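hey so u asked for the seq, here:
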Amino acid sequence: MDSQIEVLIRQLYGGLPEELIRGIQCLLESPSTDSQRKRDLWDEKDVVLITYADQVQDNVGTALEAQRRFLLDHRMQDYLSCVHLLPFCPYTSDDGFSVVDYLKVDAASGSWGDIASLGESFDLMFDLVLNHASQKHEWFQKYLAGEEAYENFFIDQDPSADLSKVVRPRSLPLLTKFPSSSGDRHIWTTFSDDQVDLNYSNPRVMLRMLEVLVEYARRGARIIRLDAIAFLWKEVGTNCLHLPETHAAVKLMRRLLDLVVPGTIVLTETNVPHQENLSYFGNGSDEAHMVYQFSLPPLMLDAIHSGDTSVLQDWLAGLSPPSSEATFFNFTASHDGVGVRPLEGIVPDERLAQLVRAVEDRGGRVSTRRTAEGTDKPYELNLTYLSAVSGAGSQSAAEHARRFLATQALMMSMQGVPAVYFHSLVGSPNDQVGVEVSGQNRRINRHKYQRSELESALARPEGIQRRVFDGYRRLLAVRRNQKAFHPNASQEVLDLPTDGIIGFRRTADTGEPLTVIANLSNEPKSISHQQVGHGVCFDELAEERIYGGEEVQLHPFQVRWLTDQ
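ran it, structure tokens below
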């Protein structure tokens, strides 16, 4: 047994549970045949597309096949390196995040063969929904039936216990009553009554999920996202968030993958305040390879709607990955809304309230969470990012697209690996009908397309979706040729006016610098060459040379990528 794995198991269980040790030994002795990992962890060409397995559908073949054809027909393999398939297993709720069987593909989306076909053109990223399973999962049904092998697979909690310290992600009950063969049980359900939390204090549960983890890597997942990992370990009397055992579990998963399928990237999903999020880097080489940059989406919206870039600039200046084996996962939108817990300690309450009002004015919804004091606070802003960045008054499709693409160009410039949500790529507006039909705020950002509908929207030359799609592909095409956008390239924030301006310099190991300057305001701005730090320079996006005697002009919502020429 690997000594590091032994140490971590002892931290978790106080000893070496025989069944867990045997199971891990079997995984270690079963070599991987996957050769895709024989490369650097990441480079400047890496961009991840976040999408559902059934995001695009047509009347020919499976949804996965329809999406693969859409991506290839539009030559997206020339712009994207990796496709993140959100949970594709059979499920009962939450658009896939209540898993019924971790090792099957939902028949409505396709098959493992379809996923393998997608993997021929793109690297793959899978979701491991490991905090909870569907109440219809076989494990839970056998647990309720009293089968010995599934004893303590889930958490039966005395409802009279003091659970007031437990951090809640949603304004829903923490415990749900289920009838069982031995009477009613009050089961821990952090996210909903259909999502029953697994009990990782049982080594059998840990083993089963480690087996799934390794299987995902062997099925072609270059990146594995550990969903809701912060809530993994429960201990009454604590907040049940980021407990030492949770960090030990992530380290165990990282170490096991390093040995069995080397090069597999572990990404932790922790929608929490910024410093808590960063804790999942561990020492920089023993825990997560990547953490989500959760503060970025709301901070960018705050800068746009307040007209003040000082908070975004100060936050950006404090970022520093702990090692070359760790980096940020940068994004502005995903299947969830824009989380606002990551603003805690960064943005004052009155400024958050201003942002909430701006979102509501743009047709967005606000989801809340229940605090320990029993009050509900904003947790997530639900709307598409395209709608979120729109101006306060009327605007043309060209103006709206320019505002949106500026945020995407800025996100793609920052240190880390950029990730693009499908609805950002194709410029989707808020899906108000989806919210009304489902009664769920998150459906506003989860519209599923028939391919004919999508192609029709993208075919309108003056429409906003075509403008965004064309503009996005150009950003991606230019970005992949810039060595300074390697995730490990250094980043230095520039001291610029904060009246809508922000800038930073990226420098590759080869010494090639690239300066990013952005105007996130409605007014034209200018910056001196001295402030930018270049003499004669070339704007890779505008394809124009700017000479040393000139001011660097910035139109409203313009981003420049400046290289030495």
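Residues 490-564 form a domain with the Immunoglobulin-like fold (CATH 2.60.40.1180). The chain has a mean pLDDT of 95.
lmk if thats what u needed
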